[in-house]
Amino acid sequence: MKKHLALLFICPTVALAGPGLTIYNQGFAAVRDTIKFGLQPGTNAVVYNGATMMLEPDSVILRDSAGKPLDILEQNYRNDPVTSGLLLSLFEGKEVDFLVKETEKPDRMVRGKVIRSGYVPSLGYGAYHGGMPSGAGQPIVEVDGQIRFSLPGEPVFPSLGDDAILKPRLTWQIGSLKEAEIDAELGYITGGLSWEASYNIVAPEKGNEVEFIGWITMENKCGRDFVDAQIKLLAGDVNRVGPQYDTREWARPRVMALQASMGGPPVEQKAFDEYHLYTLKRPATLRNNEIKQVEFVRASGVQTQIIYVYDGLKTDLDRYRGHGQANLNDNDELGVPSSTTVKIVREFMNSEANKLGIPLPRGKIRFYRADGSNLEFTGENLIGHTPKDELVKVYTGEAFDLVGERKRTDFKVDHANNWASETFEIVLRNRKKEEVNIRIVEHLYRSANWEVKGNDADFIKIDSNEIQFRVDVPAESERKVNYTVVYTW
């Protein structure tokens, strides 16, 4: 068989359809492109200029969409496109012309020697993430025997060589025994892309039947535009090994994109493996350094509930547990300090019966309430990934007109018979003009064996160390709850 591998043919790629993009809420994405290139007998250099600045080279997959094997001899990735700073770094130790522009004088050229360019390479895949040397970003130029710590003007360089690149680039050396036209599929993992969910809940002036709006915010910091891309968003924690790129905490303005056209939600969701996949119904353009938002859920008539919680125990129990259980059994200091704060918790059921019933990705949730024609912000918090038919509970703040008071009125210990008892009085004061229900949380921490006696209100056992009294407190009044707990060990 005749061999032709000594020949080299340069084969640029041509993009076919719009790219596919699956963005993960851990700050990375999977990119899919379809590209077309021709092969000649011999060795072919195939060039792809659509790579990102944070591409992971060892994740790249290039294959013939028809299923024919490609003889890929080598792959190269360059992510340092030509910039003025990069060219200046190539001329370190050499002389360069600088164009000096002055307002009242004609432009002139000066010659200077580049001692240090000050160029700092981009932090792409595998880049050094340690601290930069002091002054690394400051150029040093010698002009007429004098040292300057700045550029004397705009540098003017000779023409670019054939090896210069303007965009991040992938190149392959592909061997072929015959001429062929290839429609190829390209896939890779990249950092610099992220998404997150956020929710707004708007309550009327009276009542708790709310409007629920969910937004998806996508951010592109990867160094490439994605034009007319098919975008998917994966919610869930996918295991990754090695460096990851997390852009969720970068400061950014909240710029709202236009809502999609009428005719149903612009995002569809489905279960995928052990995660949930959200697909934008129509192609979207996500440009580099752009934030785009789309609405993915809107529901009216969602029933929510405001829960008031008084958890008066102020003692940090963990500092005592390190000294053994005996230190908890008979320590008379425990349970004495108390708080007066009554917490506000908003909860709702994520179900179809409650006009929702879709998996909710983790994100920030904000609450608003109408005050006439205005909306007033009333609190926010974070929710985790929430499947459908699960209860969502969100702490939003502290009640101004509700006060709790908790005090221990009796404490006894019998070391001979291994038991202890303590009695508490809890007072709830309601300064509102309407009755409220408050959940009193009590932690029974001294022993796993306990019995509540002498209580003047019913309680619910939450677990082996917690009970709750759920009591109604009349408007502009107060309510007392007394109980005794007996521990044995």
What does this structure look like?
The chain is mainly beta and 489 residues long. The chain folds into three domains: 8-80 and 165-190, Sandwich (Immunoglobulin-like), CATH 2.60.40; 84-156, no CATH class; 303-488, no CATH class. Helix content is 3%, strand content 52%. It has three helices and 32 strands. The chain has helices at residues 84-90, 318-321, 326-329; strands at 8-12, 14-15, 20-24, 28-39, 42-48, 61-64, 71-78, 95-100, 108-116, 140-143, 146-148, 154-156, 169-176, 180-191, 193-203, 209-220, 226-235, 267-272, 275-280, 284-286, 290-310, 343-350, 363-371, 374-383, 390-398, 402-414, 419-430, 436-443, 449-453, 459-463, 466-473, 477-488. Strands 15, 16, 21, 22, 23, 24, 25, 28, 30 and 31 form a ten-stranded mixed sheet that branches. Strands 2, 3, 4, 6, 14, 17, 18, 19 and 20 form a nine-stranded mixed sheet that branches. A hairpin with a 5-residue loop joins strand 15 (193-203) and strand 16. It is elongated and about 90 Å long. It starts with 7 loop residues before the first strand and ends with a strand. The model is unreliable at 1-6, 123-134 and 243-265 (pLDDT under 50).
Beta fraction of the residues?
over 45%
Quaternary status of these chains? single chain
Low-confidence stretches: 1-6, 123-134, 243-265
Q: How many structural domains in the coordinates?
A: 3
Mean pLDDT level: 83
Note the total helix count: 3
Spatial shape: elongated
